[in-house]
Amino acid sequence: MERILVLDFGGQYNQLIARRVRDMNVYAEIKPYNRISVDEIRTAGYKGIIFTGGPNSVYDGNSPHYDKEILNAGIPVLGICYGCQLIAFMAGGVIESANDISEYGKTELTVKSGAVFEGVPEKSICWMSHTDYISRAPEGFEITAVTDNCPCAALADEKRMIYGVQFHPEVTHTEYGKRILRNFLFEICSCAGDWTMENFTAGAVESYREKLAGKRVLCALSGGVDSSVAAVLLHKAIGDNLICVFVDHGLLRKDEGDTVERVMKNEMGLNIIRVNAKDRFLSRLAGVTPPEGKRKIIGEEFIRVFEDIAKEIGSVDVLVQGTIYPDVIESGKGDAAVIKSHHNVGGLPDVIDFKEIVEPLRDLFKDEVRKVGLELGIPVNLVRRQPFPGPGLAVRIMGEITEDKLEILREADAVFREEVMNAGLENEPNQYFAVLLNNRSVGVMGDARTYGYTVAFRAVTTDDFMTADWSRIPFDVLERASSRVTNEVRDITRIVYDITAKPPATVEWE
Ligand code: XMP
After folding, report:
1. Same-domain check for residues 368 and 480
2. Is residue 90 part of a domain?
3. Judgement on whether residues 344 and 447 belong to the same structural domain of the protein
C-alpha cells in the first residue's frame, strides 16, 4: 500500500495534514521526528514525506532537527512552516527572526513558479503563522512564492523534489491549499490514490477471516461508534466466533441500552451477551460525589463485571479493542497534561485470559471509522451519533448519583436532544446534552411554590473536542426545549444554557 509519512515536529496541525492527505485517497501516517531514522524511512518505502510545522525557531537550542541525509534519500519532501524553515536551514539557507513583522492570518501570496503551484493563480490567499522567515534560500533552491512581508514564502529544489511552503496548505483558509497538496501527492510523488474505505473494509474483512479462522474472539461493546464498527467488521469476517459483551451500567441515555441491543443483535446479527449491571454500579456509586471518584469506581466496576462474564465464557484467543488512530499517535511535542481520566471500555486485557489483541481500527481517524461503519451497513443514526462518555450520565449529574436523578436527567436530555434534532441542527453542534445540577431552587407552578432541580443545556461546536466553542443554538429552539422540559419532566424548576468554551471549561461538567 502506498504511504505518505507526516514527520511531526510538534505542529498543531499534524493530524489535519494527515487527514487532508487521506481525504485525497492516499494513506498518511504520522511519526514523531525523533522516532524514525532516515534508514527506516528509506526501507519503509514511503512515496513522499511532509514535514509539519512546529512552535520553535530553528536556532533554539532545543528545537527539533533532522538528519540532513533525508534530502538526499530520493524521496520527495514537502516542508510546511517550521518544516520549510528546517529544509532551508539543513540545506544552508539563512533564517532570521522577523519580530515586529511576524505574519499571522490570511495573507496574499504571489506565486512565481514551481511544480507544487501548478494550477494556482499568481495571486491568492494563504494562511500564515510565523515569526522567523527565510531571508536567503539555500544553494540549489529557487524561491517560488513571496508575500509582502516574506521574501521566501515557498522554495523548491525541483531536481531533488524538495519543496517548502512557509504557509499552511492544510488549513481551509489557504484558498489553493488542497490543490497544492494534490500537486505534491499526485504530480510529484506519483501516488495512485487507492486508499478508500471501501477497499479498507473489504481488505480488513478478508484478512481477519484468514487471521482469526477457528479462533474465539471477545469484544466489549459500548454502543459507541468505535466498538460497534469494530464488532460488525469482525462479525463479517468470523461470524459467531465473535462474542460481544455489552455491559449496561445503567448510566446510559433514554432507551439507549435497548437500541444498542436491538440494532446489533437483530439488525446486524451479532452474537451479544447483554449484562444488566445497573444495581451493581449504583450501589457502588451511592454517596460518592467527587468526579474523579465516580470515574474510578465506574472503571473498576466495569472490569469486575467483565471479569465475571469472562469466567462464564471461559478462555478466549483474542480480545478486540476499538482503538482508533488519534489514540495511537504520539505527538512530537511531548506529553500533554491529563485533565480527566477517560474511561473507555477497551482497556480490559489483564482480567481476561487471552493470547492476542486485535485493533481493527487503529489506523483510522474517526471520520474514516464512520465511513467504514456505513460500508458495513450499520444504520446511519448509529454511525453518526455524537460521542458519549464511557462513564455515561454519571459525569452529567452533579453530586451523588441516584436512580431518581438518573430518571430525571434521562427525560430532560431526551427532550433537549429531540428539539435540537427537530430544528434540523443535529450536525451543527457536534455534541449536545443536558446536565443535572445538584442544588434546588424555588419556582412557581399554578398557584403553588415548587422547589426543584436546575438543568443545564450544553451544546458545543468543535473539530476535535480538544478545544470547543459553545453552539449558538437559536433562542426559539432553546425556548421550546426549556418550556417542554419544565412542563414534561418532574422536579425541574429552572433551565440554564452553558455559554462557556473549552478552554476554560471542558465539554462535560465533570
Ligand atoms: P471533555 O469533558 O474532556 O470531553 O472536554 C471531551 C470529549 O470526550 C468525551 N469524554 C469522554 N469519553 N470517556 C470517554 O470515552 C470518558 O471518560 C470521557 N470524558 C469525556 C466528552 O463527551 C467529549 O466528547
Report:
1. no
2. yes
3. no
Q: Quick count: other Cβ atoms within 10 Å of Cβ 424?
A: 9
Is residue 170 among the annotated active site residues?
yes
Nearest to 80 by CA among 61, 100, 52, 38: 52
Helix H or strand E encompassing 142 = strand 142-146
**168 catalytically annotated:** yes
* Domain total of the chain: 3
Residue 389 lies in a domain: no
Ligand 1 touching residue 327 (CB < 6 A): no
Q: Is 390 contained in some domain?
A: no
Residue 480 CB neighbour total at 10 angstroms:
18
**Residue 65: active-site member:** no
Q: Which grid cell sits at 267?
A: 439488525
- Give the residue numbers spanning the domain of 33: 3-188
Single out the residue of 75, 79, 103, 104 nearest to residue 89, CA to CA.
Answer: 79
Mean pLDDT split into 10-residue runs, the chain, 510 residues: 96 91 97 95 98 90 93 98 97 87 89 97 95 94 96 97 97 95 98 97 98 95 92 98 96 95 96 96 97 93 88 91 84 48 51 85 94 96 90 96 98 98 90 96 91 97 87 98 97 97 94
Ligand 1 lined by 346 (C-beta under 6 Å): no
Do 419 and 312 sit in the same domain of this protein?
A: no
Is residue 155 domain-resident?
A: yes
